[in-house]
Design brief:
The complex is a heterodimer of chains A (205) and B (539).
Chain A lengths: L13 H22 L5 H16 L2 E6 L6 H14 L2 E9 L11 H20 L5 E7 L2 H12 L3 E8 L10 H9 L3 E8 L12
Parallel strand pairs in A: 1-2, 1-4, 2-3, 4-5
Chain B lengths: L14 H12 L2 H13 L3 H25 L6 H9 L1 H30 L12 H21 L1 H30 L2 H10 L4 H13 L5 H5 L7 H29 L17 H6 L7 H7 L4 H37 L18 H23 L1 H10 L5 H30 L12 E6 L2 E6 H20 L1 H25 L11 H12 L2 H22 L1
Antiparallel strand pairs in B: 1-2
Helix pairs in contact in B: 1-7, 1-11, 1-14, 2-9, 3-9, 3-11, 3-17, 3-18, 4-5, 4-17, 5-6, 5-14, 5-15, 5-17, 5-19, 6-14, 6-15, 7-11, 7-14, 8-11, 9-18, 13-14, 14-15, 15-16, 15-17, 17-18, 17-19, 20-21
Classes of the chains: A alpha/beta (205), B mainly alpha (539).
């Protein structure tokens, strides 16, 4: 019986071809099956939350005002927007008292707005995301924010606050709580505890 | 992180990582085993692989069920500890420790042998000290890699395993497609059938080609969702290795060669399987088959020696990983001093275990290298070890350690099925007989009994055919038992009896840490139902 091939020839048989095909298919199918295990309950939860995030952060509005201090949340918003490629808008709301005309000049508040939005732009630039800024004068901060969110079709409003260490009946600030209660989209409130000092362990006496 | 936080092994091993840990250990075996089996079982090599493969399937299924049910580091050692008690758990673990340290030494050594194809100056015969130095450096390097972290070493295993699977699949598919002759296969089987003794010897060598599947279960504590992932990776590994082993052996018996086979030492013509099985070639049979594949052989000749070296290196790497994890698990179970449980605070790997057992492997490398380094030692070996070099001595022990621990694992599987029926089993070996034990419904695994008979037969045959292993293997076990008695006495722990443990709480904790929360809920519900049943019976 011949046991070696003539130079430059092959010996192809139906049996050999079938076995070759079977080997390739069996190895491929085995590895594919191994690498695709069914998802666990926890993994399904995580996947749902992740897909929810994509919907949640399509358009983000970061709100500033004399009583809404969102600079520390702006950094978070910028990172979020970068990761999820969201549209980002920073808005400073100057509340005009009823004793003044709606378009009254308020140089102090407007100067504060420039600082806050300037810092927001710097954070956005540092994180490589584009940011639109806007200053709004309004009688009610809450209504201005809600109207703006509707106009912009915002998915998420981000608000910053800090804990003063005293209970006032509205620990996050009345405006923030009202916005959170009436907004038609998700609201993220970042509360800075004693300006971050709560993270440190206090020495025991 | 608080100061009293106890670091745990981190769960970073993915499904592919889990598979490649097992593959890196078992995959290299066929590179060595194929030639040995062809040399012993001749025309029945494919049947020998099939026979050993059946035992291997039983072993694989047993490990799969146990690792999915008890996903902790330690593998077989932990299952035996839990099923049969401390002393048997120690013996099983001690036998596997022997295997893994030999694994490190043997495969690092063989890796350098392959490298000599590219760098002849490091061959033992040319510069024995250079050869020795490179082996030592390899072992130390693998130790450092494993200390840095499992993710890094899993990445190495994963890459090389993928490369090897693609390469071996290419060799086999192209070999069958272009050069397989079914009539030649039948002719070889009919005309070259071995004697019963040779056939049994072939089977005992074939089982060595399947050693290493337990690496998957030893990495269970670091595997993501182990109860779900391990059954898949284990079954995939069993199938992959079996496909390769059966395909190679059939191809070797029925392949028409691309190049003429050289004449044998007496100047006679020889067939491919005879050429692959002779002592000069049996260590590189896969590489030689690859060279005989039409077209592909030209490329294979260039890279298969490198692939062989890499595979052997990762097999040594899995030895480093496996030995450290077993020691970690044995220390957790009070079978070894707690220092082996110490985890590096930054890398979260069992540093002490890694250092000690790679150190032991280095001692074995010295033992293996002595005859080549010192002529005085060579004559001593010739006088006392039947002329075998140190590396052969270690090889003999390899099969002994594996067969011993596998035997215990089968018994442990039966014991755990009967006495721990409440633990949820996401994967269960088929063919079971329903029984009632202590008022609980359990299932008796028939396949475990068949597997036990098979592996004990192979253990007995290994001891009959390997005179060095027959003495040194049991000596290693006796030495370990002595150490165990001393340690247990010093610690005030029971020596022959088992330390009392709350297996119920431990199982809940194991499943919680594994992230298998649904199984944890199921287990707690099973316990509650069982307690209620018992209370009702008492009332």
């Amino acid at each position: 019986m011949r046991t070696s091939l003539a130079a430059g020839t092959t010996h192809m048989t139906i049996e050999g071809a079938l076995i070759a095909l079977l080997i390739a298919l069996a190895i491929f199918a085995t590895l594919w099956w191994m690498l695709h295990p069914p998802a666990s309950f926890v993994q399904r939860l995580a996947k749902e939350a992740e897909s929810e995030l994509e919907r949640m952060v399509g358009s983000i509005v970061v709100v500033f005002s004399p009583e809404i201090l969102s600079t520390h949340m702006m950094a978070l918003a910028a990172k979020l927007a970068r990761g999820e490629r969201s549209e980002l808008l920073a808005v400073y709301v100057v509340e005009v008292p009823y004793t003044l005309p709606p378009d009254a000049e308020m140089p102090l508040e407007e100067r504060e707005a420039l600082d806050a939005l300037g810092a927001a732009e710097t954070i956005a630039t540092n994180n490589g995301v584009s940011l639109r800024t806007e200053t709004i004068k309004a009688r009610s901060t809450k209504q201005a924010v809600l109207d703006l969110a509707k106009r912009e079709k915002a998915n998420l409003i981000i608000l910053g606050s800090f804990r003063e260490g005293k209970y006032t009946g509205a620990p996050l600030g009345r405006t923030i709580e009202e916005i959170a209660a009436d907004a038609k989209c998700d609201v993220l409130i970042g509360v800075e505890g004693k300006h971050g000092t709560l993270l440190y362990e206090e020495p025991t006496p | 992180m608080s100061k009293d936080h106890k670091p745990e092994l981190r769960r970073s091993v993915t499904p592919w990582g889990s598979f490649s840990w097992g593959y890196s250990d078992v995959g290299a075996d066929i590179f060595v085993g194929l030639g040995l089996v062809l040399g012993a079982a001749a025309g029945a090599s494919n049947v020998a692989f099939l026979f050993a493969g059946v035992v291997y399937i039983c072993i694989g299924l047993a490990y799969t069920e146990l690792a999915a049910t008890y996903p902790v580091a330690g593998g077989g050692q932990y299952f035996v500890l839990r099923g049969l008690g401390d002393i048997f758990g120690f013996i099983a673990g001690w036998a596997v420790l022997l295997d893994f340290t030999i694994d490190i030494a043997l495969f690092a050594w063989s890796c350098v042998e392959y490298l000599t194809e590219l760098i002849p100056s490091i061959a033992v015969g040319v510069h024995p000290w250079a050869h020795f130095g490179v082996v030592v450096l390899l072992v130390i390097g693998l130790c450092v890699l494993n200390i840095i972290g499992v993710r890094e070493s899993t990445a190495l295993n994963g890459f090389v395993s993928a490369l090897d699977i693609v390469s071996e699949s290419a060799i086999l598919t192209l070999g069958f497609l272009f050069a397989f002759d079914p009539h030649l296969l039948v002719h070889t089987m009919l005309t070259s059938w071995p004697s019963p003794f040779e056939f049994m010897k072939g089977i005992s060598l074939a089982i060595v080609s399947f050693v290493g599947l337990e690496s998957i279960s030893q990495a269970a504590e670091e595997t993501q969702r182990p109860a779900s992932i391990i059954p898949r990776t284990s079954v995939a590994l069993i199938l992959t290795i079996l496909i390769f082993a059966l395909s190679y052996s059939n191809l070797a018996l029925g392949m028409q060669t691309w190049h003429p086979i050289p004449l044998d030492a007496q100047g006679h013509h020889q067939l491919l399987w005879q050429w692959l099985g002779n002592p000069d070639n049996n260590g590189k049979a896969v590489a030689l088959i690859a060279q005989q594949v039409p077209y592909w052989g030209a490329i294979a000749a260039l890279y298969v020696p490198v692939l062989g070296a890499i595979l052997l290196l990762i097999s040594a790497n899995s030895g480093v990983f496996g030995s450290s994890r077993i020691a970690y698990a044995m220390a957790s179970g009070g079978l070894l001093p707690s220092i082996f449980q110490r985890v590096h605070p930054k890398f979260r790997t069992p540093t002490v275990s890694l250092l000690v057992f790679t150190g032991l492997a280095l001692v074995e490398v010295v033992f293996a290298a002595l005859p080549s380094l010192d002529p005085g030692a060579a004559s001593f070996y010739a006088q006392h070890f039947n002329g075998e070099a140190g590396i052969d001595f270690l090889g003999d022990l390899y099969a002994f350690g594996a067969a011993t621990s596998y035997s215990f694992v089968f018994v442990a599987l039966v014991a755990l099925r009967l006495f721990d029926p409440l633990s949820p089993r996401k994967f269960k070996i088929p063919l079971n007989i329903p029984v009632t034990v202590r008022g609980e419904r359990a299932e008796f695994p028939v396949i475990a009994v068949l597997g036990f008979i098979g592996i004990v037969a192979i253990l007995v045959f290994t001891m009959i055919t390997h005179p060095i292993g027959r003495v040194a293997g049991p000596l290693w076990i006796v030495f370990g038992i002595g150490l165990y008695f001393v340690y247990r006495k010093r610690k005030g722990l029971p020596i022959l009896r088992s330390h009392k443990r709350d297996w119920r709480s431990e199982q809940v904790e194991i499943l919680r840490r594994a992230g298998e929360l649904e199984l944890m809920d199921e287990y707690v519900a099973n316990l509650k139902a069982s307690d209620e049943r018992r209370a009702a019976v008492k009332a």
